[in-house]
Amino acid sequence: xxxxxxxxxxxxxxxxxxxxxxxxxxxxxxxxxxxxxxxxxxxxxxxxxxxxxxxxxxxxxxxxxxxxxxxxxxxxxxxxxxxxxxxxxxxxxxxxxxxxxxxxxxxxxxxxxxxxxxxxxxxxxxxxxxxxxxxxxxxxxxxxxxxxxxxxxxxxxxxxxxxxxxxxxxxxxxxxxxxxxxxxxxxxxxxxxxxxxxxxxxxxxxxxxxxxxxxxxxxxxxxxxxxxxxxxxxxxxxxxxxxxxxxxxxxxxxxxxxxxxxxxxxxxxxxxxxxxxxxxxxxxxxxxxxxxxxxxxxxxxxxxxxxxxxxxxxxxxxxxxxxxxxxxxxxxxxxxxxxxxxxxxxxxxxxxxxxxxxxxxxxxxxxxxxxxxxxxxxxxxxxxxxxxxxxxxxxxxxxxxxxxxxxxxxxxxxxxxxxxxxxxxxxxxxxxxxxxxxxxxxxxxxxxxxxxxxxxxxxxxxxxxxxxxxxxxxxxxxxxxxxxxxxxxxxxxxxxxxxxxxxxxxxxxxxxxxxxxxxxxxxxxxxxxxxxxxxxxxxxxxxxxxxxxxxxxxxxxxxxxxxxxxxxxxxxxxxxxxxxxxxxxxxxxxxxxxxxxxxxxxxxxxxxxxxxxxxxxxxxxxxxxxxxxxxxxxxxxxxxxxxxxxxxxxxxxxxxxxxxxxxxxxxxxxxxxxxxxxxxxxxxxxxxxxxxxxxxxxxx
Length: 700
Fold this sequence. Notes:
With 700 residues, the chain is of the alpha+beta class. It is built from eleven helices and 36 strands.
């Protein structure tokens, strides 16, 4: 409630002698005492000084024609019913504003009417009574500034003179803003909420004028829209405030742990990492071993696999600890496994700011100062006395064949030569063996922890092809030793003869042995009986490489053609043509065929349709060897240009190039998730290891 000052009648106030009330001609004004507020928040004026005669309408003490200074003003009585009065009063005696919310400006200094009798007596027509005038009709017709005062002062005769008036914040709000607020409240709707009309002046902007009609009223139709400046309301956003309390409950924490873990198992890695930061309860659930086991299994399509037979105590967590947080059935620490494998894949990838090419030669010290991608650890193994033509490796050893007519077994971890076999009378051009044949199953591995002597030697299967036209079948043995790597021995089980030229390539699976030769023939042997099953003829030149997948064989020849064969029927299924020169190497996995040629190109083929999916260009000389993993999409190639290149199989993009690994032609290259191994005419075996500092013993 606001208290307005009560003004006493001036010396010139005339009173009726009978009633004691001011005479009509005295221009006296009733004294308004209070500004009240209704339940809707609308302030209005009331008075306790109105006439007591209720029988007749209140007659203003100031004639209406005297109150309105404009000649064209309406002289009719404009009456309005006011709370607190027994009858209607002139509208000019009332000040009313519409319902509105709490304004954004400070209300302790705000007043709809801020009377200053001495100030108003200078500009308003009066008879010296000193009473305040409330009606806007008192102001003459002229342009008015946003403060509500005339921009040029005037007197009744129109002679301007300097004005003593000062800008009033109260009048600015009362006269300049309230009509605009009223229009916004009247025309606004909830559908218009949030719409902003930019580029409009605020009531505080100096020099901003409002247009008035000749009668003193504001031209609302031509007013600029509100722009959300201080003290203004945009449409009806202040009346329709959408306040929503942030409420809810932590459903995960109220669920049994089994159900909570089941729900979290459907999230991806990014979401699980976010869950770690929600709360302690969520952190414990998101770290559960079963969650990370599920996340790891989702990456199996990308080649993420583990061999549980290799599990040891370093990769396990205690049962007592795992039971505290509802562990997964297995005791492997799947969080560490996931992190390790992710870091391993990152090392294979190229960094955006790093160069594609890495010179890994011993004298390339200066180049290493240039920012590069992560460079693998390089190990060079020597031992053969002549060119190393072929290699195969598993998780613990490398087996190589050389022009020196020997086969050597090397420790992958130390590079030490574990064994040397001699059985061919010519160069060993190719070989294959069963990977990890000596890895124990769970039961036998448990027994081996206590007594290594309880295990007999593990027997493996090895085949080799030579320039002496023969295929040797070997029994290879691993003899466990306490605290040392197993000792390796081998003996020739059988010699397969039938080719009339050097055996250039071999493939094996659980049922067959496939060999190809310079005699342009492909021979298929039974692995169990070692008997010849069929001979495939169709090439016009030496068959340099073969691939085996199920019941199908693909062969690559120096005649520039690839042929897809059916083993059971011996029929030719399809012929692939596309290389410009003879083919040197081939790989066949999961309906994909990748070939390398003397035209320096690598081509990727669809085995089912025979179409060339993409061509990879980058080598400068013959592409002699290649290997790829269809799950990870990684392709590695070796060439006579002495480089090893890593490609993205799906996009054909070159990811990395390694120069300086060898000083001569590269004859063979193989890779797994940890490393790349290559052999060369320089008699060296080079290992590029990406797993330095990581425990990758379980990965396959």
